Amino acid sequence: MSTSLAAVLESVLVANRGEIALRIIRTCRKHGVRSIAIFTDRDADAPHVGAADEAIRVESYLDIDAVVAAAVATGAAAVHPGYGFLSERAEFVRAVEAAGITFVGPSAEVMEQMGRKDAAREIAIAAGVPVVPRGDEAGYPVLVKAAAGGGGKGMRIVRSAQEYDEALASAKREALSAFGDDTILVEKYVEHGRHIEVQVMADAHGNVVHLFERDCSTQRRHQKVLEEAPAPTLSPGTRERITSAAVQLARHVGYTNAGTVEFLLDTGPSAAGEPDFYFLEMNTRLQVEHPVTEEILHGIDLVFFQLIAALGHPLGWEQAEFTPRGHAIEARVYAEDSFHGFLPQAGTTSIVRWPERARVDHALAAGQVVSTAYDPMLGKVIVHGPDRESARRALLAALDDTAILGLTTNVGFLRALVASDEFRDATIDTAWLDSAVIEEPSRDLPRVFVAWVSAMIVAMQDSGHPFQSDGWRSGADPAPTIVELDRPVVVDRARGTVDGVPVRQHSAEQHVLVLSVDGHRHRAVVNVQPHLAEVVHQGQRFVFERPDVFADVVSAAGDGTILAPMPGTVLDVRVTDGQTVGEGDVLGTLEAMKMELSLKSPFAGTVRQVGATAGDQVALGARLFVVEPADGLG
Asked: How far apart (Å, rounded) are the C-alpha atoms in residues 386 and 11?
């Protein structure tokens, strides 16, 4: 295309939220196209809303009429659905096009055909693409799966005739709930297989190319966890067969725009020579894992070319011009407790640190509320290297640099998975993670970090007055600090030990603490609060509930004067002059070395002086508050 995108496309409404909405908005901004976000009441302050040029409220991301009305009201020239929500709903495509707006994706007819597993199976057969044998042709085990949807919903593995009726009924219930359709397919279950998918791109002029394949075999209950490109176990011959089959299918069905054809590669013990592969389904949208394809193809922007294709322009691509470069791996970061049943997690983030040495597609920042109302994926960490092992090591480093505090995520689990021998050796198949045991990291090292910081804070607080203690005792070494966590921990800063283990501090700033523990250097992100301490080490979050060690050490004169126990920054002031307070009420918070300290009223009374405002830098011993006792006695 010789002209710029902005010359032919004025605006795009992004019918989505989260990281994919931000991903599309970034491409629009780069090419001078006005971006329009939609949001629900729950998402009014979400990152994608602030990033877009314009935003408009809708009742629900799944409300077709509301989303189309928002596109019309804002004058959108095109609608990009992202993935999930309405991205594979043919009726949404028809509604968008009926409003005179361009839909970024395939036609409604093709989406309808390929969106149903039963119809897509027949199309694949007609196109000469191999499909999984039906259950009655293969015997047990079989896979019972919903015809109308994906994402692992409505799927059951059945290993015997005795299990069949119950599994079928369960799958039908789940399919009806998730997709409004309880039609079920029964196919041979491939016990040991690799999930291989091919990225295709097609324009309205009959040109179809593949952008090579991705391996998504590391998955749990049909939900992908790690994805990589190119697939590490494919021979050149099998790669050619699979990619050609994907192009053949897309061309047969008249596909346009970006799509992904998914296959199952049979790697079981019976597979000899070149393994068999079977068509599974086609995703008629952009995939979550599209960044790994972009990374191996010199940073190609798939969203940009989606927009070009949607406008009817030829892509002008020849298959021969694409050559993969190196290896890319993506890790999906979820709000879930992977070591305790993979339970969904919710909460408000306190600290969020994404790695600088990786591509990160995310929509998560500090202070953000994460609920269970939407998909639990918080972001994606993507790395690229000259070969697979280089990429794997880069991902380990990137996950080490990822820290999310305030709620539990799967980052520590991802890190352990990427470090495993099985992933290193590319021996993981689609069933492996369902039975594998990934050991939860020990709390011993994180406990050292929290204890060390807690002792540091106590040392800072116990200073600035004539009778301060420096831990010195007549005829003895300075006294150690006893830190109460899940058990008492003895910190001897003078000797540099924690519970007798040698500890040396290298640096401590912005909540990042670097220690050598027993001669080994470690880095962690630590947040110590009065009743709760959090530490993230190698991606894993550890929480220690603790007694309020700060409550009794805040300097408070007998007349109700509260002094700054350490030099620092006033984070917030919660009271005003004349306000009535109770004993223990928080008057404000102070921060030093990025550690927060609550300043509390020593008794019930009335605030008679407020000596600071949020943002003030205060010295040790500065008078911050004066509280007059309720009974008038000092």
From this structure: 37
For 216, 411, 416, 502, the CA distances from 395, given in Å and listed in that order, are 16, 11, 11, 30
Q: Are strands 11-14 and 34-39 parallel, antiparallel or unpaired?
A: parallel
Residue 390, token pair as written in the block: 């280089």
Look at residue 125 and give its three-state secondary structure. Answer: helix
Q: What is the largest CA-CA distance in the chain?
A: 92
What would you report as the CA-atom Rg of the chain, rounded to the nearest whole angstrom? 29
Instruction: Give the pLDDT confidence score for residue 632 in this predicted structure.
Output: 52
The model carries a pTM of 0.83
Q: Which pairs count as long-range contacts for 469-476, CB under 8 Å and 24+ apart, including other chains?
A: none
Q: CA torsion sign, 427 to 432 to 437 to 442?
A: positive
pLDDT for the residue 634: 43
Which residues, at least 6 apart from 268, have a Cβ–Cβ distance to it below 8 Å? 190, 191, 192, 193
Q: What is the DSSP string of 555-596?
A: -B-TTSEEE-SSSEEEEEE---TT-EE-TT-EEEEEEETTEE
CA distance 430 to 544: 36
**Distance between CA atoms of residues 397 and 390, nearest Å:** 11
- What are φ and ψ of residue 462, in 5° steps? -85, 60
Q: Helix 117-126 to helix 108-115 angle, to the nearest 10 degrees?
A: 100
Q: Are 333 and 224 in contact (CB under 8 A)?
A: no
- Sign, CA torsion 552/558/559/562: negative
Distance CA(524)–CA(449), nearest Å, equals 7
Q: Tokens 């890319």 label which residue?
A: 328
Ramachandran region, residue 320 (left: φ > 0; alpha: ψ -120 to 50; beta: rest): alpha
Cβ pair 261, 200 in contact under 8 A: yes
Give every residue of the chain whose pLDDT is below 50, as ranges. 463-475, 549-557, 593-594, 633-634
Residue 392: φ, ψ to 5°: -60, -45
What is the DSSP track for 283-321?
E-S--TTHHHHHHHTTT--HHHHHHHHHTT------GGG
Rounded to whole angstroms, the Cα distance separating 110 from 88 reads 10
How many angstroms separate the CA atoms of 296 and 291, rounded?
A: 9
Question: Which has the closest alpha carbon to 349: 527, 523, 597, 592?
Answer: 527
Q: Give dist(CA 591, CA 35) in Å, integer.
A: 39
d(CA 599, CA 576): 14
- Which amino acid belongs to residue 246? A
The phi and psi torsions of 464 (rounded to 5 degrees) equal: 90, 15
Q: Report the C-alpha gap between 490 and 379 in whole angstroms.
A: 38
Q: What is the per-residue pLDDT for 148?
A: 82
CB atoms within 10 A of CB 340: 10
Helices (H) and strands (E) in the chain, counts: 17, 38
CA-angle at 408, arms to 85 and 150, nearest 5°? 30
Q: Which helix (H) or strand (E) holds 115?
A: helix 108-115
Query: Cα(48)–Cα(55) distance, rounded to whole angstroms?
Result: 9
CA atoms of 72 and 512, how far apart (whole Å): 48
